[in-house]
Design a protein that fits this description.
The complex is a heterodimer of chains A (186) and B (356).
Chain A: H1 5-32, H2 35-40, E1 43-44, E2 48-51, E3 65-69, E4 79-83, E5 95-98, H3 99-104, E6 108-111, E7 114-117, E8 121-126, E9 129-134, E10 140-141, H4 144-171, E11 184-185
Parallel strand pairs in A: 3-4
Antiparallel strand pairs in A: 1-10, 2-4, 2-5, 3-7, 6-7, 8-9
Chain B: E1 2-4, E2 9-11, H1 13-30, H2 35-44, H3 49-73, H4 79-105, H5 110-144, E3 149-150, H6 158-163, E4 170-173, E5 178-181, H7 182-199, H8 204-215, H9 219-243, H10 249-269, H11 275-301, H12 307-339
Antiparallel strand pairs in B: 1-2, 4-5
Classes of the chains: A alpha+beta (186), B mainly alpha (356).
Chain lengths: 186, 356
């Protein structure tokens, strides 16, 4: 027995909806298990100190944050790990305080075996828009394979959602005909 | 509010979904990525400027796949034309980016670039408006004479010149019903790609008029084929942006979910209208984007002292998205009313299709 147009549409919708959901769950899991974050904060683009900028975002000149310097495999709290350009970043790193900023001494200063952060963020302007400039994302390099993964993922998700939507309209009986571009219309 | 770990901000999911939906609708209808609307919106939501540009271009790649699939179903894509153009577009984008860096080295300021983009957009707007007004007038005249009018009607003579260039290889585009030199298509791809790369946008708003007025496709096919181009150029842009650390995938995900609904509606809405209607909305989107760019230009020229001008620029850009969506919705609504023999404004019948 021939399968009806609507039934085919329903099958198409269910299959591609399942694929779209699977892709969404996969993204969610990768985001929250830290994989995407580790791809994002992959290597040091510049020499300096790897830090977790969230831990000292509330520091002020009156109440500076003091970061302990050491070679920690994982940054926990107020810690800083010295890195050279191209080094893999420790777990939980989300930014680099570069040598220049430390030498400058206006925002961060080196005091013995510690880094004293006094200005964790400042207001800057770009293309007419003001934004908060912090140490987050600074001096980090993403995993180049992550870029390929991103493109493949986004195209796959777009494809799944597109076919799913097509299946949905078919399932609802809204058969969209090809537009007759060259015939007369009223 | 949702905590975007990579972008490092908290932003409302609903706003991202709605932005994706509105830009998806406009993009699906006029065949543009909509980067000039999304980036300022994301900055308003609190995303850093570089992250806004990265999220924007990545979501455009995904959204264009959704819209392309629907336009394929509607027969609005000429695959031969699209694939012939892709190489030129990519080359052009790279050349545009390099040209931008070169002009920066020469000391040409951002103000000059912004002024050039305003001039190009106004030029395109004026030409599209004049041509489309003439086309709708002709449709009305033909309808009064009782003649059948095609879905597309253009009065521009420019495509005839470009189609007469007989430089081999010649390509035959069956869907677009065109026989044109491959060189014309490649050069159009390079030229529009250079402008896109130079101004840092997807280039749909330049490529759609170029496909219509230079190559000579119908507007519907220009929209569908351009979206196919955007899949490739957007994918390339997404790769570059991710590698530069400018993409938070969860933000992209929410925008694509919204864009899926918007792009469906925008793409399907093209089947309710004639070519001039799409060109009208494209020209309005151009002029509205130009006003936004002009306000930012004034803000820069006045030494960035009057922050209210910048505020107006942002409000204007957000308002533009809503206006264009309402324009598309009203066209579809009037088309349905016209099909049922109900009253519609006098300018509607020339723009919408009652039945095929």
């Amino acid at each position: 027995m021939a399968v009806s147009f609507k039934t085919k549409g329903a099958i198409k919708f269910v299959v591609w909806a399942a694929i779209a959901v699977a892709l969404s769950v996969y993204l969610w899991v990768e985001y929250y298990n830290g994989t995407l974050v580790s791809w994002y904060y992959y290597k040091a683009k510049t020499a300096g100190w790897a830090v977790n900028s969230e831990t000292f975002k509330d520091a002020t000149k009156e109440k500076p944050a003091v970061l302990q310097i050491g070679t920690f495999p994982k940054i926990e709290g107020l810690q800083a790990v010295p890195v050279q350009k191209g080094d893999r970043l420790p777990v939980n790193t989300n930014g680099i305080i570069d040598d220049k900023t430390v030498k400058d001494g206006k925002r961060v200063s080196l005091e013995g075996n510690t880094l004293k952060v006094t200005v964790p963020s400042q207001i800057k302007e770009s293309k007419g828009f003001k934004f908060r400039d912090t140490f987050k994302h600074k001096g980090v390099e993403t995993n180049p394979w992550g870029g390929l993964w991103c493109v493949c993922y986004i195209l796959a998700l777009g494809f799944a959602l597109g076919i799913m939507a097509e299946g949905f309209t078919d399932m609802c009986g809204l058969k969209l005909e090809k537009i007759k571009h060259y015939e007369g219309v009223h | 509010m949702f905590d975007f770990m990579i972008a490092g901000i908290e932003a409302p999911i609903l706003l991202l979904v709605l932005t994706g939906m509105t830009v998806g609708m406009v993009g699906g209808f006029i065949g543009v990525g909509g980067g000039y609307m999304v980036t300022p919106a994301l900055i308003v939501f609190g995303f850093p400027g570089y992250m806004a540009a990265g999220i924007d271009v990545t979501h455009i790649a995904g959204k264009s796949v959704v819209a392309t699939i629907r336009h394929r179903q509607l027969g609005n894509i000429d695959w031969v034309l699209g694939l012939a153009m892709v190489g030129g577009t990519m080359m052009g984008v790279e050349m545009g980016v390099r040209l931008l860096n070169y002009t920066k080295d020469l000391g040409l300021s951002g103000v000059a670039l912004l002024a050039a983009s305003v001039a190009i957009m106004i030029g395109l707007f004026l030409y599209t408006q004049i041509e489309t007004h003439r086309a709708t007038k002709r449709i009305t005249e033909l309808a009064k004479e009782g003649k059948t009018v095609g879905r597309e009607l253009k009065v521009s003579r420019i495509p005839i010149f470009f189609q007469s260039i007989a430089l081999k290889p010649i390509i035959r585009c069956h869907t677009a019903r065109l026989v044109v030199s491959m060189w014309v298509v490649v050069i159009v791809g390079i030229a529009t790609g250079i402008l896109a790369g130079f101004f840092g946008v997807g280039g749909g708003f330049i490529r759609v008029p170029a496909l219509v007025y230079v190559v000579g496709t119908s507007t519907h096919i220009a929209v569908g084929t351009d979206l196919l181009e955007i899949v490739v150029s957007g994918g390339y842009g997404a790769l570059r942006q991710y590698m530069s650390g400018n993409v938070d995938m969860i933000a992209v995900f929410f925008m694509i979910i919204g864009a899926m609904f918007g792009a469906q509606f925008g793409s399907i809405a093209t089947s309710f209208v004639r070519g001039p209607a799409i060109r009208f909305i494209l020209s309005y989107s151009l002029v509205l984007a130009t006003v936004g760019a002009f306000l930012r230009l004034v803000y820069f020229l006045t030494g960035q002292q009057h922050t209210f001008i910048n505020f107006f620029a942002v409000v204007f850009t957000l308002g533009e998205m809503i206006f264009l969506c309402l324009f598309i919705l009203s066209l579809v609504w009037f088309s349905v009313r016209h099909r049922h023999g109900k009253w519609v404004p006098g300018w509607i019948p020339a723009l919408v299709v009652v039945k095929e």
